[in-house]
Design goal:
Helix content: 25-40%
Organism: Myotis myotis (Greater mouse-eared bat)
Number of strands: 18
Structural class: alpha/beta
InterPro entries: LRR_dom_sf, LRRC14/PRAME, PRAME
Radius of gyration: 29 Å
Strand content: 15-25%
Keywords: Leucine-rich repeat, Receptor, Repeat
Number of helices: 19
Protein name: PRAME nuclear receptor transcriptional regulator
Shape: globular
Family: Belongs to the PRAME family.
Length: 491
C-alpha cells in the first residue's frame, strides 16, 4: 500500500486542524513559521474567516502576499474584510506582540506568487522570498545592551500595497472597505500603490488619491479626456511621485477659451514636474494636444535617460523631431514609437539621426501610420541597418512601394536579433480603380519576401503584413491569408 505524498499529508493535516477553528486559533501561538503558509492557504480556500483574521495578527513574515492567492479572480469580500480586520486588530494593540513581523500586506495579484508554492521547502527558502533580513538570525543582546536599551521605539506604519484603477462610479465593496480602514488608522496604516491608473476625474477619486502614499507610485496612467486646466490641478500630485518609472499621459485637450499666455503657463507648470521624476524610464504621450512645438520643454526637464519613448497620435512640428534627434539622451533607449504622427511633410534627416544615435540599444521601433513615403524610407534604411539590438520593427499603413520593401529586407536581414517585422501592404497590392486591397496580389508580395528570406538565410525572420480589415476597420494580419480578424469577409 503506497503512502500519500508528503505535501498531501500536510494539506490533510491543515484541513483537519481547521475543522475545529478554536483549536486552530489556539495553535497559532506555537505553530512553526514554515507551517503558516500551508495553513493560511487552506483557511483561504475554505473561507475560514475567523482563522484568517487571527493568522494575519500572528503572521511571522514581514510580508503577507494575499493578492497572489486571488490571482485573476475578484477577491471574496469576506476574506478581504477578514484580512483587513486582522490588520486593524493588530494595529489597535498597545504593545508589540511577541511574534509581530508583519510590515506589508500586499494585495497585488502578480507579486510574490512563488511564495505560496515554495512553502514546502526549507525555512530559509520561505523567508528569503519576502525579506532577506528576515531569514538572518538575530544577535542576542547582553546585559549591557539591555541596560542601555530605552523604551520600545514607535511602531513603523504597516503598508498595504494595491494596484488602483480609479474610474467612473462608486468604488467596489473591497476598495471602499480598504479606504475606510486606512482613514480610521491614518498614520499607522499606509496605502501604497505601485501601479495607478486614472480613467475618470471625480471628487471621490481625488479623495482616494489623497490617501495614497504618492512616493510609492511607480507606474502612472492618466488615460481620460482632460482639459489642460484639469491636468494643471493634478500637477501637485505628479510632483510627489519621486519613484515614478513609467508615465502614460493620454487625451489632453486645449480649450479655445484658453489664451496663449494661459496655455503657456499651464504647459510650463506641467513640464516642470518632470524635474521631480529622477527615476522615470518610460514616457508615453498619446493624443496630447499641447505637445506641438513644445517638446523641447519636456526634454529639458528629463532628469535621466529614457528606456522607452512613445509619442503617438499627436500633432508634431519638424522642430520637435529636430529637438529629439539632437537633445534626447538615447544612451539607454530600447523602445521608440511614433505611431500616428504625421511625418509626411517632415524631412527625414532628424528621424535618420535619431535612429542612428539610438542604434546601439534600440530593440523595438514603431513607425505605424506616419505617412512615410518611399524617399523618406530610403533615407533611414542605412540607420536601420545599424540597429544591432533591434528585435521588432513595425511600419504598418505607410504608402511605400514593393521596391522599398525589398530594399528594407536586404538592409535588415543581417540584424540577427530581428525576428518580427510588421510591414505595410505595398502600393502594388491595391486595386488601381477602387483602392481596395487585392488579396491575390498581396499573397504574391508575401511569397516574394518569403523566398528572399530563404535565399538570404533568414527563414526564422517573420514578416507579417498588417492592414485595416475591409469590413470592421480593425487591423488585420496577413500571412498570406487574413488572420486575427474573425469578422473578415473576402472581397
Amino acid at each position: 500500500m503506497s503512502l500519500p505524498a508528503p505535501r498531501r499529508l500536510l494539506e490533510l493535516a491543515c484541513q483537519g486542524l481547521l475543522k475545529d477553528e478554536a483549536s486552530a486559533i489556539a495553535a497559532l501561538e506555537s505553530l512553526p513559521m514554515e507551517l503558516f503558509p500551508p495553513l493560511f492557504v487552506a483557511a483561504f480556500t475554505g473561507k475560514h474567516t475567523k482563522v484568517l483574521k487571527m493568522m494575519v495578527q500572528a503572521w511571522p513574515f514581514p510580508c503577507l502576499p494575499l493578492g497572489a492567492l486571488m490571482k485573476d479572480r475578484q477577491p471574496d469580500h469576506e476574506i478581504f474584510q477578514a484580512a483587513l480586520d486582522g490588520l486593524d486588530a493588530l494595529l489597535a494593540q498597545a504593545t508589540r506582540p511577541r511574534r509581530w513581523k508583519l510590515q506589508l500586506l500586499n494585495l497585488q495579484k502578480k507579486v510574490h506568487q512563488e511564495f505560496w508554492t515554495v512553502w514546502s521547502g526549507t525555512r530559509t527558502d520561505v523567508c528569503s522570498l519576502l525579506e532577506p533580513e528576515a531569514a538572518q538570525p538575530m544577535r542576542k543582546r547582553g546585559k549591557a545592551d539591555r541596560s542601555r536599551a530605552g523604551p520600545n521605539p514607535p511602531l513603523a506604519p504597516v503598508q498595504v500595497f494595491v494596484d488602483l484603477c480609479l474610474k467612473e462610479g462608486i468604488p467596489d465593496e473591497s476598495l471602499s472597505y480598504l479606504i475606510k480602514k486606512v482613514t480610521e488608522r491614518r498614520g499607522s496604516l499606509h496605502l501604497c500603490c505601485k501601479k495607478l491608473k486614472i480613467l475618470a476625474v471625480s471628487k471621490q477619486n481625488m479623495n482616494i488619491l489623497n490617501m495614497v502614499q504618492l512616493d510609492s507610485v511607480q507606474d502612472l496612467e492618466l488615460n481620460c479626456t482632460w482639459k489642460l486646466s484639469t491636468l494643471k490641478k493634478f500637477v501637485p500630485y505628479l510632483g510627489q511621485m519621486g519613484s515614478l518609472r513609467r508615465f502614460l499621459l493620454s487625451h489632453i485637450l486645449t480649450s479655445s477659451r484658453t489664451t496663449m499666455e494661459q496655455e503657456e503657463l499651464c504647459v510650463g507648470q506641467v513640464t516642470s514636474q518632470f524635474l521631480s521624476l529622477p527615476c522615470l524610464q518610460e514616457l508615453c504621450l498619446d493624443s496630447v494636444s499641447f505637445l506641438k512645438g513644445r517638446l523641447d520643454q519636456i526634454l529639458r526637464s528629463l532628469k535621466s535617460p529614457l528606456k522607452t519613448l512613445s509619442i503617438t497620435n499627436c500633432l508634431f512640428l519638424e522642430r520637435d523631431l529636430r529637438h529629439l534627434s539632437r537633445h534626447l539622451n538615447v544612451s539607454q533607449l530600447k523602445g521608440l514609437s511614433f505611431s500616428g504622427l504625421n511625418l509626411t511633410n517632415i524631412t527625414s534627416g532628424p528621424l535618420q539621426l535619431l535612429i542612428e544615435k539610438a542604434s546601439p540599444t534600440l530593440q523595438n521601433l514603431d513607425l505605424d501610420e506616419c505617412g512615410i513615403m518611399d524617399p523618406q524610407f530610403m533615407d533611414i534604411l542605412p540607420a536601420l541597418s545599424h540597429c544591432s539590438q533591434l528585435m521588432t520593427l513595425s511600419f504598418c499603413e505607410n504608402p511605400i512601394s514593393m521596391t522599398v520593401l525589398e530594399d528594407l529586407l536586404r538592409h535588415t536581414v543581417g540584424l540577427s536579433k530581428l525576428t518580427r517585422v510588421l510591414y505595410a501592404a505595398p502600393l502594388e497590392s491595391y486595386e488601381e480603380t477602387s483602392g481596395t486591397l487585392h488579396l491575390g496580389k498581396l499573397a504574391q508580395v508575401h511569397a516574394v519576401l518569403k523566398q528572399m528570406l530563404q535565399k538570404l538565410g533568414r527563414p526564422d525572420m517573420v514578416w507579417l503584413c498588417a492592414s485595416p480589415c475591409p469590413r470592421c476597420g480593425d487591423r488585420t494580419f496577413y500571412d498570406p491569408n487574413p488572420i486575427l480578424c474573425p469578422c473578415y469577409v473576402s472581397i
